[in-house]
Amino acid sequence: MKEIISLTKLFINESLGFSLFFYNQKFNKKEFYKQLFTLIIVPVALIPAFFMYVSLMSATYFGLTLINQTSVFLSIGYIMATVLIIVFGVMYILSEFYFSDNIEELIPLPISQRKLIIAKFLSILVFEYIFAAFILIPILIIYGVGQGMGLLYGLLSFLVFLTVPVLPLSLMTAVIMLIMQSASLKGRKDMLQIVFVFIGIAVIFTVQIWFTSQLGSGDEADFQLLMNTILTNNEGLLNSIGYLMPTSFLMAWALNKITLMSLGWVATLLGITLLSCALMVTVGNRVYLKSIVSGKIIKKGKPLSGAQRSKVLGKKSHGAMAIFTMDLRLLLRTPVYFFNNVSVVIIAPLCILLSVSFIEIPPEDLQGMQEFFRAMPILINFLLIAFFIFFGGTSATTASTFSREGKASWLTRMIPVTARDQIVGRTGVAMFIQSLGIVFTIIAVQFIFPLPLSTLVITIVLGILGSLPILLFGLFLDMNRPLLNWDNPQKAIKNNMNVVITLFVGMAYTGLLIGISGLLGYFVNPILGYGVFALISAILSVVFYQVISRRLEAEFLNFEGN
Amino acid sequence: MLILEHISKTYGNKNEKAVDDVSFEVHPGEIFGFVGPNGAGKTTTIKMIVSLLAPNSGKIRINGIDNQTDILGAKKQFSYVPDNPELFEKIKGIEYLKFMADVYQVPASDRQERIERYLDIFEIKNAVNDPIGSFSHGMKQKLALVGALIHDPQVFILDEPMVGLDPKASFELKKIMREHCDRGRSVFFSTHVLDVAEKICDRIAIIKKGKLIEVGTMAEIREKAGSQESLENIFLELTE
Ligand SMILES: Nc1ncnc2c1ncn2[C@@H]1O[C@H](COP(=O)(O)OP(=O)(O)O)[C@@H](O)[C@H]1O
Ligand SMILES: [Mg+2]
């Protein structure tokens, strides 16, 4: 037990970078204050959002009392929390169990696999409890106060709260471990493993959604009929939503009304939770370390013949192309980088496709939508532009471009490559990935309704042009303060302030620019809107480009030792 | 070929100079050894030459080009192999070599011929299709050497090159250094292994605590020290 706790502490410490924080407190004051500042400013910045959330939930509760459906209130919160936990959980599980390097140091030590798994799981759980608390506790309190609940409700809802992150997270961990195991068994390495995980999870969700949709609409459930049952039966809404997450029924039965049965339902929930933990540990014990060890074996290529070598070497490439290829290869071949910077351009369009195939839009509504957009193309154009900028600018690929090279960055700085080629090559990689996202999105959207050619041209051109200043801004930041001294590639992104700043500044900037040019385009003249958007993007890009190309070679001298 | 004038460098602590007013010159056709104990400032000096660090003061000219006013031009004149060459682990050996040939704009026929030759010499031909992450330390060093020789640099700069190489590779490297100089180019390398410097260098510089204490041929340094001792003993006396 002691061992598990100290391991858990170690993992938490590692993922938060506390040791560096305290090291900086002693030896690097400037860096320390910067970290302290972000540590304080991020929660403070979230306070308004939290208040908005609480008032929204109070309003929802009030609305539900009006239609006599308060019984669904807790389930809504439960399902929201579970979905969020799963979404963030996939990332946490992959990075803690599979991308973190500490496992290499831990395998040789006499620690049982079971303890490792439990400790890693607990270290993820801590973060998930924080998420769950922000979402669920306001809901539990609103409901408790609204229904005039007593002490027993408080106690039972606390117990239920404890189970909320554990259940989905442990099942998710077991599933991911199984997928990673089968991926590594087939000799699939690196990014293919990650693709496997996504596909596996997508399949599970698809099956689950399909299953519930079968349950829900036994026979062509008429909308009127559904509304009737909802309005006459005060658990109608609960029944139709609960299918999404079967355990939410247990929670609702336990807490909606406190009776003697509540104790039984809470006990059942606790039991199921413990069972799923046991399942995860059992599965993990069989596959986890095995797949880690086989995953660490680097697959070698076949020796090349002289002819093959000269075929590779014979082609001369431009400096910018050489930088582009190197940067792209590193991005695609390092799982964490692929996961953070590339996967979103596959997942987001996939989500559009999935939602389209499950939500059936009646043809007349679709027609209406199409007419609406035909009448006001500027709305959908800017919406798409925002989406495309999200692929390019806000994934912050350029903001870690030097950091990702880590200790090998001496090579980048030593070779005689012009600043222009560096900028073009590195920005090119971000744009290439963005273009993939754009193409996939357009294909997915095509299924809802075909976009006119003018929309395609405008959104592609402005989407790419609009993200250019953000890309260059990220490059500028990473040129000034790269994070090179890491031993685990994850740190180049996760501990990198350049990425965080580019993300936030990029989003704020995009919102502002699209807001202004959208309003101009809508109220004055579409051409003016697009024009202003293009002009501002172009000017900022030129300015950033000039600054970077003038400073880059000199900045390379400052990457270490100051 | 390589000229340093009054180079100084401090890291964090401004009172402690890692390199203190260092000046010397490496002539064409010369193997020049940079000798000193651990922490003397060899790596720091080399990093300033190869544009990885900015000196606090002083000038460096490589093949006549000032590496502070024309960084890019200076970079084309040398190639550099660090003491511990960290390379991109996910990249294959051959991809790395192609990258180096591309960024130095080596003509297609030259690059193939040189790469084939050096891969043979260092016996890593069969490994070039593997990711660098699977290379041993010595293999990485050999790959970095091949990469550095692709563009046939005017000045070949190496930091502690013999550490980590097997005896055969280290023998071959010395041969390559000599050939390089025979074609009128220069080799500049640092070492704390003294008999290496003694055997293969035309001239050496001795650095201690950031200060240059001797520059010259072996004979000149012996003469100054007034003895027929080996460099080892002179060095121990000088750096005491
Ligand atoms: N990045 C750095 N930050 C602070 N001090 C450094 C750094 N690199 C080297 N030093 C210091 O500079 C001095 C010279 O180091 P170095 O040039 O690496 O010596 P050598 O290569 O001769 O062994 C040493 O005292 C070392 O501690
Ligand atoms: Mg050194």
TrEMBL record, chain A:
Record keywords, A-Z: Membrane, Transmembrane, Transmembrane helix
Membrane-crossing residue ranges in chain numbering: 36-56, 76-100, 121-145, 151-179, 191-211, 258-281, 336-359, 379-402, 423-449, 455-477, 498-521, 527-548
Hydrolase found in the keyword field: no
Keyword flag ATP-binding: no
Domain of life: Bacteria
Signal sequence residues: none
The protein's name: Uncharacterized protein
UniProt lineage: Bacteria, Bacillati, Bacillota, Clostridia, Eubacteriales
From TrEMBL, chain B:
Entry superkingdom: Bacteria
Keywords: ATP-binding, Nucleotide-binding, Transport
Organism of provenance: Acetobacterium wieringae
Organism phylogeny: Bacteria, Bacillati, Bacillota, Clostridia, Eubacteriales
GO molecular function: ATP binding; ATP hydrolysis activity
InterPro entries referenced in this protein's UniProt entry, alphabetically: AAA+_ATPase, ABC_transporter-like_ATP-bd, ABC_transporter-like_CS, ABC_Transporter_VariousFunc, P-loop_NTPase
Protein known as: ABC-type transporter ATP-binding protein EcsA
Transmembrane parts of this sequence: none
Domain ABC transporter, residue spans: 2-234
